[in-house]
Design goal:
The complex is a heterodimer of chains A (482) and B (392).
Chain A lengths: L8 E3 L5 E3 L1 E10 L3 H12 L4 E4 L16 E3 L15 H12 L5 H20 L4 E2 L12 E4 L2 H16 L2 E3 L4 E7 L2 E7 L6 E10 L8 H8 L7 E2 L8 H8 L4 E2 L5 E7 L20 E4 L13 H4 L3 H6 L6 E6 L14 E3 L2 H8 L3 H14 L34 E13 L2 E2 L6 E3 L5 E7 L17 H22 L1
Parallel strand pairs in A: 3-4, 3-11, 4-8, 11-21, 12-18
Antiparallel strand pairs in A: 1-2, 5-7, 6-7, 9-10, 10-11, 13-19, 14-18, 15-16, 16-18, 17-18, 20-21
Chain B lengths: L10 H14 L10 H6 L6 H10 L5 H5 L12 H15 L13 H23 L2 H4 L8 H5 L2 H29 L10 H13 L21 H27 L11 H26 L10 H24 L5 H18 L6 H20 L11 H4 L7
Helix pairs in contact in B: 1-5, 3-5, 3-15, 6-13, 6-14, 9-14, 9-15, 10-15, 11-12, 12-13, 13-14
The chains are: A alpha+beta (482), B mainly alpha (392).
């Protein structure tokens, strides 16, 4: 606390003038996920005093990190937990493929080379890796899995940060920034007694995207966004991102885009996480509320297609669709948390789904009649397909006829958004005129769009967070010393 | 909820089914212990399987603090507490003979009453039958204890109690084995049996997958594994001490023995372990995060811990004060606790070890099948976007 300069004043909820309190640290980290903690730990180790402001309550700390499970790092040889090498070149090829070229090549290659060190650095912070096990064997070579998942990872990082003497505050949403010409001066935080002004010599923004901000999503998606389900916590509101852009930081990434998958429509509005996912589209047909099919369910293997279905369902009336399959497919996919809706006939199923029974029967009958004979094999692009219907089903097309018949209602589930702040190799934000900011850095989802302009590859969000978090922490501490 | 709605015997098992269905669609905890890999081998969870999983759970607490869906999340996933409740329910359900099942209803009270009755009976018997001069006199030298209670009477009484406990617990184990639906042949295979022995002696699953255990909060500072080792090995050493003493007796060397002789050495070291271990476990239990605790059954845990502690304490007191006038009464008290411990073994927390050991045998068998090298190979292209539980 200091009286120099005089503390600003504001009104409390009763309209009385209150003196705002004021604190000062070397480095202020806004956000509380993987990127924020990697930044805080690194800055603290470099000798800076660090304050972390997490907008969420303690249980919900960490934003999307609490729902993650692994990270993707390049490595030259197999390790105790990774089944084989994953070269920088291969990593870059994968990134290029999933982003369809929407990446800053220089920054991406730099991040990938830095990811190698992260593979050792993260365990040094108390996080444990384990080999991939049930359901994710395909990632055993490329991705390092956190023992106990993302929340366990967060617990370890927080514990390390606390031991190092990083100050951490929860329920501390930043409501305003004082930024002058690319120079961060202070942040305003909501606090029980009134606003609090937090000064720091450097700012690290690691507060995620705006996926939980329905109003903001509506700007691009219109009223349908009201029917979106948000897979992470309600605290990813993009407040920090918005304020930075408004105060002259250059933006990157398509603001209209978000990672959207089709998840169980019965999931809660927020934070349903991984357990609401459904991996059975390829085994059945998907109809909208008018009982019409609208896309080729068997176009390609599921891992390559799951991320388009959120958008497809978002384009349907009332943003709802139904995956319909029969008894033969029930155990071919990972279980999910809600049971499928079951019935002995299509008519009965339509009744339970509150769909028009005649229309559903007609759609299923038309589909069944179009199924050509083939040898079903869910491990390859098999030859089971339809003929003479539009849209077709190109693979794994089997007649839907063996009772019980099942259905899952699905809605778009939003994972993250792509809009972010532009940064350079030092994780330093760039201003709209292209100049680097004096003392502002960004890490994690808030700047992921620099590297990941489109699409997604499992575990890459965590790589971006750890790599740039560590760089931001190092550079911010350096900035403070100079 | 499972795909096929199943009916459960209790609300706790229905809740356990709900949780296992959620956990099975997440699987982030699969590296923490045996419960989650065992769960992944199933898609539906009938009562027998839930009882198996409940007894496989060591209560390390890691999955509670690692869970993104733990309370206050609306999914309210609290695996340690629900499995603790299911476990305690299962102890009552497997009681042999059935008539003693109510012992588990208020186990702390029941065990206390039995212990008090046994101690009182021994003290009264000693006082009633013994000449006060002998009871409160100084008795030293070989056969000093048996002046107070003839060796034969001791062997007959304690032998009978012990044999009864063994028979009852064998029956209980059999009932458990049937309930979880495991064939008897599994017990004849040496591989799973040896692995279960190793896992038991190491307490392999009381370490949160090597991250440590959690008891009070999200910090892995728990020491229950150490305290349990002290208790477990202390108990085994005390048992070895008694066995050695019997052997000595039949070789013609009567108790009490000098401090440097095997029965006393084993009993002293074991007895100290059996003081520190239970004390540590009790203090951990009292500090445990109330959210993870099966509060109504706290009495059962405390009664068991107290019985171990008091048995050891009275034994050590007897050792220290055996050459004084208090020896007679101390012997009566100690024998009372030992007797009470024996006859309540099948009706208290002691049985957790049996069912957990049996569950570990089954798990060892199952995990061998799971880790079969012939795992299905998934197309390499799947590595790009990720499968299963790997998305953000």
């Amino acid at each position: 606390m200091t009286n120099e300069p005089p503390p600003p004043h504001s009104k409390d909820k009763y309209g009385c003038w209150v003196e705002a309190s004021e604190t000062s640290h070397d480095v202020l980290v806004v956000g509380g996920g993987n990127a924020a903690l990697c930044a805080a730990i690194t800055a603290r180790r470099a000798g800076a005093s660090v304050l972390v402001l997490e907008g969420a309550p303690k249980f919900y700390r960490g934003g999307n990190t609490r729902h993650t499970r692994n990270m993707r790092c390049a490595h030259d040889a197999a390790t105790e937990t990774l089944s084989g090498p994953y070269s920088e070149a291969e990593f870059f090829d994968d990134l290029l493929r999933v982003t369809q070229g929407h990446t800053d090549e220089d920054l991406a290659r730099f991040m990938i080379s830095q990811s190698k060190e992260i593979l050792n650095w993260i365990p040094e912070q108390g996080v444990r890796f384990q080999p991939s096990l049930g359901g994710t064997l395909s990632l055993g070579r490329t991705n390092s899995f956190f023992l106990g998942g993302g929340r366990s990872m967060l617990n370890a990082l927080y514990l390390t940060a606390e031991k190092l003497g990083v100050d951490i505050r929860y329920d501390s949403e930043v409501t305003d920034f004082d930024i002058e010409d690319g120079m961060f001066l202070s942040a305003t935080v909501k606090n029980g007694a009134g606003p609090e002004f937090i000064r720091a010599k450097a700012l690290i923004a690691a507060a995620g995207g705006f996926e939980a901000n329905i109003e903001w999503l509506k700007q691009y998606w219109g009223p349908p966004a009201d029917n979106f389900l948000i897979r992470g916590t309600p605290y990813n509101r993009g407040t920090v991102l918005k304020m930075l852009i408004e105060r002259g930081v250059q933006e990157i990434g398509d603001p209209t885009q978000c990672h959207a998958v089709a998840i169980d429509a019965r999931a809660p509005k927020f934070d349903g996480g991984i357990i609401t996912r459904l991996d059975c589209v390829v085994f059945g047909i998907v109809v909208n509320k008018k009982c019409e099919r609208f896309y080729d369910e068997g176009e390609d293997i599921w891992p390559k297609r799951y991320a388009i279905w959120g958008r497809l369902v978002a384009a349907q009336p009332d943003q709802i669709a139904y995956i319909i399959f029969d008894a033969r497919s029930l155990t071919l996919f990972m279980p999910s948390c809600f049971p499928p809706i079951a019935a002995q006939s299509i008519r009965e199923l339509a009744g339970k789904l509150e769909l028009d029974p005649d229309a559903l029967e007609k759609t299923v009958a038309t589909f069944n009649a179009a199924v050509r004979p083939g040898t079903f094999d869910d491990k390859i692009l098999d030859d089971c397909r339809t003929e003479g219907i539009s849209p077709p089903k190109s693979h794994w097309a089997r007649r839907i006829e063996t009772p019980p018949l099942y259905a899952y209602p699905v809605r778009p589930g939003i994972t993250f958004t792509y809009l972010g702040t532009r940064v350079n190799r030092d994780a330093r934000m760039l201003m709209k005129d292209g100049r680097p900011a004096a003392n502002m850095f960004a890490a994690g989802e808030i700047m992921a769009g620099n590297v990941l302009g489109r699409g997604y590859a499992a575990g890459i969000g965590m790589t971006i967070g750890s790599v740039f978090g560590r760089i931001a922490g190092r550079e911010a501490a350096k900035n403070v010393r100079n | 909820m499972s795909a096929t709605e199943s009916v459960h015997a209790t609300g706790t098992l229905a809740e356990a089914d709900r949780l296992m269905t959620i956990c099975n669609s997440c699987r982030y905890c699969e590296g923490l212990c045996a419960v989650f890999p065992a769960m992944e081998m199933r898609r539906a969870f009938p009562d027998g399987d839930l009882n198996y999983l409940a007894n496989l759970c060591h209560g390390c607490g890691a999955c509670y603090y690692d869970c993104q869906f733990a309370p206050p999340h609306e999914f309210n996933v609290n695996v340690p507490r629900v499995l603790a409740k299911a476990r305690a329910d299962s102890y009552a359900a497997y009681t042999w003979p059935r008539a003693f099942a109510p012992m588990f209803a208020r186990n702390g009270l029941a065990i206390s009453l039995v212990a008090a009755a046994c101690v009182a009976a021994f003290v009264l018997a000693f006082v009633g039958w013994q000449d006060p001069y002998v009871l409160f006199g100084i008795n030293t030298g070989p056969g000093a204890f048996f002046k107070l209670m003839p060796h034969r009477a001791m062997v007959a009484l304690f032998g009978a109690a012990f044999v009864y406990a063994i028979v009852a617990m064998a029956m209980e184990m059999l009932i458990f084995w049937r309930d979880i639906g495991e064939p008897m042949q599994t017990l004849t295979r040496s591989g799973p049996l040896l692995e279960a022995v190793r896992d038991t002696f190491r307490l392999r699953y009381l370490e949160g997958g090597k991250m440590g255990c959690f008891n009070e909060d999200e910090r892995p500072t728990d020491r229950r594994r150490i305290y349990h080792h002290l208790t477990f090995y202390g108990f085994l050493l005390c048992f070895a001490s008694t066995s050695a003493a019997s052997l000595y007796h039949y070789l013609g060397r009567e108790a009490p023995y000098a401090w440097y002789e095997l029965p006393v050495l084993l009993g002293t070291v074991g007895g100290i372990g059996l003081l520190i271990g239970p004390a540590g476990l009790l203090s951990a239990k009292l500090r445990r995060d109330p959210d993870m605790l099966d509060k109504p059954r706290l009495g059962m845990d405390i009664a068991f811990i107290a019985m171990l502690f008091l048995t050891s304490l009275t034994g050590l007191a007897l050792l220290v004060l055996r050459s004084g006038p208090a020896m007679g009464i101390l012997l009566a008290v100690h024998l009372g606790f030992v007797f009470a411990f024996f006859i309540t073994m099948p009706y208290g927390k002691f049985v957790h070890g049996l069912y957990r050991f049996a569950a570990l045998i089954r798990y060892a068998k199952e995990s061998r099948a799971l880790h079969d090298p012939q795992v299905p190979v998934v197309a390499a292209s799947a590595a790009v976007t990720g499968q299963g539980g790997s998305r953000p």
